[in-house]
Design a protein that fits this description.
Elements lengths: L10 H32 L2 H37 L3 H28 L1 H7 L4 H16 L1 H16 L3 H25 L3 H25 L16 H36 L1 H38 L2 H28 L1 H9 L3 H14 L3 H16 L3 H27 L1 H5 L1 H24 L4
Length: 445
């Protein structure tokens, strides 16, 4: 039975509705993970480090897609909840077209200036050449990657999360197959890794574009003629600014982590952090997937004025995320060594460093779930300011303070626990906002 945004959500229905988005984001996170596995095992540590240096840049630019997707879907879902379907399609089309135009501009800029970007990240010699090759090939498909990130949210607003999951599974499989072909079989190195990733992103971004451009049975369709709604676009950017801040800040902070680890442990430190980030991408995708998957439901009931259902969604989300945080943390501690061995089993010193770092880093999973969800929750309520404040403090301010201060006191151990310290400070801020705003939005008692 098709689940609609207007339904009353039990635990079972909420999990069924959000599960496709969770799995979809897990598939998306697999791009860099699969690249890392093949590059590390078939090319070597230097090329592996190049992938770890450049991919955060791609993710930083792709933050544009998260901003327009999450912010736009909140506006569109709210408009649908108000009974204005045609206007919702106009808003949807405008956001997609603006996203295409902006992403193409950023892609060209990054391709042209990739040598300078790589040098700014500290790359030299062979590492520099690998960074340039990987980055230039990767950014050719950046527009498709940004579209993929946008459509992840719009598929949920269109009541088609299952279709989105199928498309993203196809994209992930495309990446895996061609990673094997280009890296393991053809020995194309980092160029093959970037090309395989780009082919997966084309599947994930262009197929949805074709789907929504044609007649379909979802709530949304791209229109041929659309005008620029300046206020709506500004509202979209404001609503989605927290998601943009989250992803852009993560990229910037990852670069800072790499600088610290290069100073403390050299190339091995960068490689170890890369492995930890690969596993982190998969684990945090669970929190992000639930948050993105449930946000349009919150937006719909907020627009429809269904305060009882907002309370229901708020209560159930807090319980599910708390339980999920405990489960993921325990799993990370238990499976730390097997997960790390997938990437660096060929180097015992590097493996031991990575396992120890990951076990400290994974303690942050206990706290980050509520923080990630709360930011998306306020985006869904069309309160971009609070959402952005949570994300800005969590992913940038607190992390920068932690990664600069703790290593000075504790060495490399301080690097691994920096995320835990930042998430703890962010949780205090998150709880404060949830308590202060509950009367305004009627999701509390």
């Amino acid at each position: 039975m098709r689940i609609q945004l207007s339904d009353h959500f039990t635990y079972k229905k909420l999990l069924r509705f959000t599960l496709p988005t969770v799995l979809m984001l897990v598939c998306t996170s697999m791009y860099s993970v699969v690249d890392g596995f093949f590059v590390s095992n078939f090319v070597g540590k230097t090329s592996f480090a190049a992938v770890n240096l450049i991919f955060p840049v791609s993710m930083g630019v792709a933050a544009l897609g998260f901003m327009l997707g999450t912010g736009g879907s909140a506006v569109v879902a709210k408009t649908i909840g108000e009974g204005k379907k045609e206007l919702a399609n106009q808003y949807f089309s405008m956001v997609i077209y603006v996203g295409i135009a902006l992403s193409m501009i950023f892609s060209v800029i990054c391709v042209l200036f990739m040598p300078r970007i790589a040098r700014m990240l500290g790359a030299e010699g062979t590492l520099l050449q690998d960074c340039i090759i990987y980055g230039r090939v990767l950014f050719v498909a950046e527009t498709a990657f940004i579209l993929q990130n946008m459509f992840q949210s719009f598929f949920v607003a269109a009541e088609k999360p299952g279709l989105s999951l199928k498309i993203n599974i196809a994209a992930g499989l495309t990446n895996v197959v061609f990673d094997y072909v280009f890296i393991a079989a053809f020995r194309w190195g980092v160029a093959g890794a970037a090309l395989a990733t780009g082919m997966g992103q084309v599947v994930g971004g262009i197929v949805p574009l074709i789907y929504f451009a044609r007649k379909n049975d979802s709530l949304l369709r791209l229109t041929g003629k659309v005008r620029l709604y300046g206020k709506v676009l500004a509202k979209t950017c404001g609503n989605g600014s927290s998601e943009m801040v989250t992803n852009l800040s993560s990229s910037l902070v990852n670069i800072l982590y790499n600088f610290q680890l290069m100073r403390l442990a050299g190339e091995d430190g960068v490689a170890a952090f890369g492995v930890i980030m690969y596993v982190n991408f998969i684990f945090i995708a669970v929190f992000m997937g639930y948050s993105v998957g449930s946000a349009p439901v919150v937006s719909y009931h907020y627009g429809a004025g269904n305060h009882g259902e907002l309370k229901n969604l708020y209560k159930k989300s807090l319980f599910l995320l708390t339980l999920g945080s405990i489960i993921l943390t325990v799993a990370a501690e238990i499976f730390a060594e097997p997960l790390v061995k997938i990437f660096v089993n060929y180097d015992k010193t590097l493996m031991d460093m990575t396992v120890g770092g990951f076990r400290l880093f994974s303690l942050a999973f206990l706290l980050m779930g509520i923080n990630v969800w709360a930011s998306a929750f306020f985006t869904a309520l069309n309160n971009g300011l609070v959402s952005a404040a949570i994300s800005f403090l969590r992913t940038l301010v607190f992390q920068i303070i932690a990664v600069l201060a703790l290593p000075a006191l504790m060495g490399i151990t301080g690097v691994w626990i920096s995320v835990l310290a930042a998430e703890g400070a962010a949780l205090a801020v998150t709880v404060g906002f949830l308590l202060v705003e509950k009367k305004r939005y009627h999701y509390g008692k």
